[in-house]
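Duplicate of #3305? Posting structure anyway:
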């Protein structure tokens, strides 16, 4: 299937949503697993798009059409990640920090957590710290998953943790952070309970933190 994954990656990189969707459907019909299609076709596409952007070969319009192609494919794949109904593991509040519009990774994390049995409260992208805090209170959340893709916005994760502290809900919830610029070191520095490099890590971590 390696050839098809490369083909899918190229469609997404070039923003060919229709062709990408057709191939995703073909892969699913052929017994392909949603997780594999995401990990081996879609995520490498976004990595390549990022490289091209850095090398000034791609600009914002190309980034946008590629992201749209990825999102269209994810609409088909997300429901498949929720394979079986399992007993609820707890409630997870997910969101991308204030100032940051990147939500593709956050959506994958949310879908995988949902698939693992967590109830999901998805706050979307560009989420102010106060909104995280009120969602934790309102939904009695067990864990919060905060995402950031920009070096300039990852700093806002510290605000999220501080706001949870000043609002007196820090100790009632576990905080995990992730996103391309994040590291374990940074997570430790800001006082998060955990860091995950990808969505599979997010699931492992959430189960560990809540269990
Ligand atoms: C698509 C994209 C966009 C799209 C976003 C569309 C959308 N709906 O999300 C658009 C075009 C809008 C965009 C805009 C911008 N972007 Co942009 N974008 C990207 C790109 C190409 C891919 C990101 C992506 O979706 N990756 C795929 C997903 C699956 O990966 P992920 O997000 O990392 O998530 C995974 C893990 O990190 C982890 N994870 C994520 N969150 C969490 C949370 C937890 C708790 C855990 C445990 C794990 C976890 O699990 C996920 C699944 O495996 C990256 C390049 C890259 N290599 O990352 C640049 C990139 C992030 N963008 C960049 C830039 C500069 C920008 C802009 C500032 C450009 C501009 N000049 O306007 C704007 C900023 C807008 C804003 N205010 O947010 C830079 C950031 C540089 C930096 N160091 O800060 C990058 C790295 C490109 C580059 N190489 O220069 N962008």
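Output from current build:
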């Amino acid at each position: 299937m390696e050839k098809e994954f490369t083909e899918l990656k190229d469609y997404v990189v070039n923003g060919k949503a229709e062709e990408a969707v057709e191939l995703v459907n073909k892969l699913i019909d052929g017994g392909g697993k949603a997780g594999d299609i995401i990990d081996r076709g879609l995520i490498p596409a976004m990595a390549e798009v990022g490289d091209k952007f850095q090398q000034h070969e791609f600009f914002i319009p190309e980034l946008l059409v590629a992201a749209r192609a990825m999102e269209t494919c994810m609409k088909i794949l997300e429901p498949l990640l929720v394979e079986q109904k399992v007993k609820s593991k707890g409630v997870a509040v997910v969101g991308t920090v204030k100032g940051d519009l990147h939500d593709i990774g956050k959506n994958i994390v949310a879908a995988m957590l949902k698939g693992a049995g967590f109830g999901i409260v998805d706050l979307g992208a560009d989420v102010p710290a106060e909104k995280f805090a009120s969602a934790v209170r309102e939904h009695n959340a067990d864990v919060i998953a905060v995402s950031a893709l920009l070096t300039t916005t990852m700093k806002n994760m510290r605000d999220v943790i501080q706001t949870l502290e000043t609002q007196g809900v820090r100790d009632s919830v576990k905080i995990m952070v992730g996103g391309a610029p994040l590291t374990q070191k940074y997570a430790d520095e800001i006082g998060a309970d955990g860091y995950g490099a990808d969505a599979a890590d997010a699931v492992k971590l959430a189960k560990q933190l809540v269990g």
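Confirmed duplicate; merging threads. The chain is about 55% helix and 10% strand. The pocket of cobalamin is lined by residues 43, 46-47, 49-50, 53-54, 60, 63-64, 67, 99-106, 108-109, 145-147, 149-152, 176-181, 196, 198-199, 201-202, 205 (CB under 6 Å).
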